[in-house]
Amino acid sequence: MDAPIKTDELTSWNDTPTRRAIIDFVERVTTEGGDGFVPPIERIAVFDNDGTLWCEKPMPVEIGFILKRFAEQAEADPALRERQPWKAARERDYHWLGEVITKHYHGDDSGVQVLMGGIVLAFAGMSVGEYEVAARAFLDDALHPTLGRRLQDATYLPMVELLRYLEANGFTSYIASGGDRDFMRPVTHDIYGIPAERIIGSSTHLRYQDDETGGMIVYEATMDVFDDGPMKPVRIWSRIGRQPILAGGNSNGDIPMLQYAGSGRPGLRLLVLHDDADREFAYISGAEKSLDIAAAQGWTIVSMKSDWSKVFADSP
Which residues pair with 208 in a beta bridge? Predict the structure, then answer.
């Protein structure tokens, strides 16, 4: 083997067939001379973020940051108060926002288009530096509404351990998320050990703006790309130039990415199942199709309830 198989790094994983499937796969692709050997440079792993690496209920983490911006705008401009998504933000209508996400995973993007339209307007003209400072401040302080911890601490410890385990065995991991790329970048290295340049996500068009300090990059009021569904593998290839051999997701929007991982070669596809109402949440809405495909095609389903001895780092 060209790297040690450090299974002691998966301490929050119960000794289940899922844990063994992960270890067996890593052993297979790292054993030189074996049929499944993959050189380190080609050991690419990609992971969704919301619902895969950190909690996405009662709404994705980023939505809280966006709602704060919407509410500020609605207070400053009464004309926005009866328009979505500013109306939902001002009234704290989390149900409307949750339905937007759920409908998207069922193929209805009407609500997503309204939400995205508001987002690009909310941050138009802001520099990437200003946005980074605001996002970092939000993630440092904002609390999860029900779990009793900071939002950035609502990160799944077993998945962080998996990222470290893969790194120890010669993998390079990327995040390919429907969430905003620049919202994740300020904290991914601290939380996951994944640097900013390995974050692939949704993005707004940017432009260079000259100024007295030497210029800056600012956001425009138009969407660049929504990194979900079939766009995920496209963006993965365009950013990395390599096909992943391992992918982790949790929803219907991750199906193309999971199918793409290891196509035509050894591959491991992990689908996180939220089935632990006591320690996190229990739901399959927005993941029905992915669960059916996982069962039909033999993907590895990760049960929070059965496969993880701990969910969060600070939990008992």
Answer: 217
